[in-house]
Predict the structure.
Amino acid sequence: MGAAAKALHPEDKLVNRINRKVGLGITKSVGTMWCAYAFALLALVSLPAAILSHDPIIIIAWIAQTFLQLVLLPVIIVGQNIQAVAADARSAATYEDAGAILEEAKQIQLHLASQDAAIGALLDKIKALEVSKAGG
């Protein structure tokens, strides 16, 4: 485990590491479109019974509690994963832009320091001319 992970989990017990690995494994497997397709097929097994009941409450309950819950869970996880990849890409681009801006700011600072030195030299010459003109 890296230093960052140790900082996040200072009292990292074996059970916590196992729980994280199991949770991550389940999330990775459920968060796929293949799992969404499998869940849709699983939900469709009970559709004929819901339809044959001719009870609107049972049909609506099948749609809401069986189909939507089973199928939308993995689809939402897939969408979140896609959004996370896009956010990571934006974050990396922002970091690169900030690095480029920092380098440009350093160049501007060097240029301004050079100008300050040139202006200082000119002011010194003007003062010297004023002193020699006043004395002469």
Summary: The helical segments are 3-8, 14-30, 33-44, 47-52, 56-135. The two ends are 79 Å apart (CA to CA).
